[in-house]
Specification:
Blueprint (H helix, E strand, L loop, with lengths): L1 H9 L3 H4 L1 E4 L5 E11 L4 H7 L6 E4 L11 E4 L4 H10 L4 E9 L84 E2 L19 E6 L15 H9 L4 E2 L20 H12 L4 E6 L6 E3 H15 L6 E4 L1 E2 L9 H14 L17 E5 L17 E8 L2 E2 L11 E4 L3 E7 L12 E6 L2 H18 L2 H6 L12 H10 L5 E2 L3 E3 L4
Parallel strand pairs: 7-9, 7-11, 8-9, 11-13, 13-14, 14-16, 16-20
Antiparallel strand pairs: 1-2, 2-4, 2-5, 3-4, 5-10, 5-12, 6-18, 14-15, 17-18, 19-20
Length: 505
């Protein structure tokens, strides 16, 4: 199981499981040491390269029809050189790329290039077509951007497509070059009654999968004496489904909040608030230090969808990502997402192009926090909705952007559910009381995903799908249609290189 592999992964120090390298163009990417992803046909070539020694390898995902698609080869001393040699010989091969969660501390905008290509939006309408919500806390920091001034902290997107970067200097991505030492989440007050969402759960069904750090529904790791704020946070999460692995606050047992601990719990609260009634499952696929990799996520998705069988997840939310060697897509995740969507797409349209409107399974991913237009995976996949972040005065200074970004949503000082660590013996840190304030595209992505879920549920959700004789549904009944409607609606404001503004408040 993928979760078992995650446990093994976290037993190793962060700097022993993550390495960095520059590609031929000098761009940094991260990868797992000693691992190569390739095809079974390349194994003989690797044996020749390693002097004929026995290889340790395993399928990336379970076999289909008796055939191995991709294998993960371990014990490779030079994974970058080995992968390059295999590609030169005509084989598909890459290192096992590492991805990171996408929360951030707001940087000093003066250190970022000044943009010239974003317009001054003077009349940013509040999306009016989302039905009126009714009853769960509204993260107070999801502002309603009604008049966004000209942003001053994003680089000029030049004129280059996905394969390149902008003319202005983009974010160097130096923050991930060392192991993170502390969380950027900050304690927050429980949202007041006047900040509560007015969405009310309806009867339509929608299955959402969140692959993240898991969810901690009890809020307090040890205490049973919860205050009103922690009890309220716990109530928000009561209907969220957890996986077998809970969100961990102190995996290394040093009594300090792990850097990305609570990330999944925070995102679960956003879904509970913005898509009440949705069937949300939070699977642990990231460590509490925020790292994961191509193979781990591919396996996690395959396992979850295999368990779901004929009732697949409708929407998948991924709040992590990373850069890849030569800016090429990660091969394991690319095949897995494409395979999942192809398996569940309407058979009538199986031979047609995979436009968003046809998708039975919609993937949403955060664009990243590097102030760069360099493609971040998995967000940059054509069949994934990439989400950037807004602040109270326009695009967030940290958000990635580019022609591959499809949408943006509030992502600065978002308030949502967190741990209650006020009573943890020996805890060395700030006193959380079930709520936190956090920034990043990590939290903009679930705003968009939850908005799609809500829109689809308001159309009938799975009940709408089941009306079709073949149970596949018409195009108008699929989650992809609701997503396309939300992103393409003429009344919604759009930023060049940052996509459609989704603001459910």
């Amino acid at each position: 199981m993928a979760t078992g592999r995650l446990k093994q992964l976290t037993s190793r120090p962060w700097d022993a499981r993550v390495q960095f390298r520059s590609d031929r163009s000098g761009k940094v990417f991260a990868y797992r040491p000693n691992q190569v992803i390739t095809t079974p046909a390349a194994l003989d070539r690797i044996r020749l390269r390693t002097g004929g020694r026995e290889l340790v390898y395993e399928p990336v995902v379970p076999e289909r029809d008796g055939e191995l698609d991709l294998v993960l080869v371990r014990g490779i001393a030079d994974p970058i050189g080995t992968a390059a040699e295999l590609r030169a010989a005509g084989f598909s091969a890459r290192p096992n790329h590492v991805f990171f969660a996408h929360p951030t501390a707001l940087p000093n905008p003066t250190a970022l290039p000044n943009p010239t290509a974003f317009p001054n939006p003077t009349a940013m309408p509040n999306p009016t077509a989302l039905p009126n919500p009714t009853a769960l806390p509204n993260p107070t920091a999801l502002p309603n951007p009604t008049a966004m001034p000209n942003p001053t902290a994003l680089p000029n997107p030049g004129g280059v497509g996905v394969g390149g970067c902008c003319d202005a200097p983009c974010g160097p991505w130096t923050a991930q070059l060392v192991a993170p030492r502390f969380s950027t989440a900050r304690p927050a007050l429980m949202p007041g009654a006047d900040a509560y969402s007015y969405r009310k759960a309806n009867g339509a069904a929608c299955k959402v999968l969140v692959v993240d750090t898991g969810v901690f529904k009890k809020i307090a790791p040890n205490s049973t004496d919860l205050g009103p704020a922690a009890l309220a946070a716990q109530a928000v999460l009561q209907d969220v489904n957890g996986s077998s692995d809970e969100d961990l606050w102190d995996d290394d047992a040093n009594k300090v909040l792990d850097p990305f601990a609570g990330h999944g719990t925070f995102i679960a609260g956003i879904f509970a608030n913005l898509a009440p009634g949705a069937d949300v499952t939070c699977e642990r696929g990231l460590t509490s230090f925020g790292d994961t990799d191509d193979v781990l996520i591919a396996r996690t998705l395959e396992e979850r969808f295999a368990e779901a069988g004929e009732e697949p997840y409708d929407i998948v939310s991924l709040s992590f990502g990373g850069f890849c060697e030569d800016d090429d897509p990660p091969i394991a995740l690319a095949r897995t997402i494409a395979s999942i969507q192809a398996r569940h797409r309407d058979p009538v349209n199986a031979d047609e192009s995979a436009d968003l409107i046809r998708e039975r399974v919609v993937f949403v991913a955060s664009a990243g926090n590097d102030a760069s237009c360099r493609p971040t995976w998995p967000a940059a996949f054509e069949n994934v909705i990439a989400v950037g972040a807004l602040g109270p005065h326009g695009p967030a200074p940290f958000t990635n952007h580019g022609p591959w970004v499809d949408a943006c949503a509030p992502g600065v000082d978002v308030v949502s559910t967190f741990f209650d660590l006020t009573d943890e013996a020996g805890y060395d840190g700030e006193d959380f009381d079930g709520w936190a304030s956090w920034s990043g595209t990590s939290f903009a992505a679930p705003v968009v995903a939850a908005s799609i879920a809500w829109e689809w549920m308001c159309r009938g959700g799975r009940d709408h799908l089941s009306e079709a004789p073949d149970h596949s549904g018409t195009a108008s009944g699929r989650p992809g249609h609701a997503a396309a409607w939300l992103l393409d609606r003429p009344g919604h404001f759009r930023y060049p290189w940052l996509g459609t503004v989704v603001n459910p408040h």
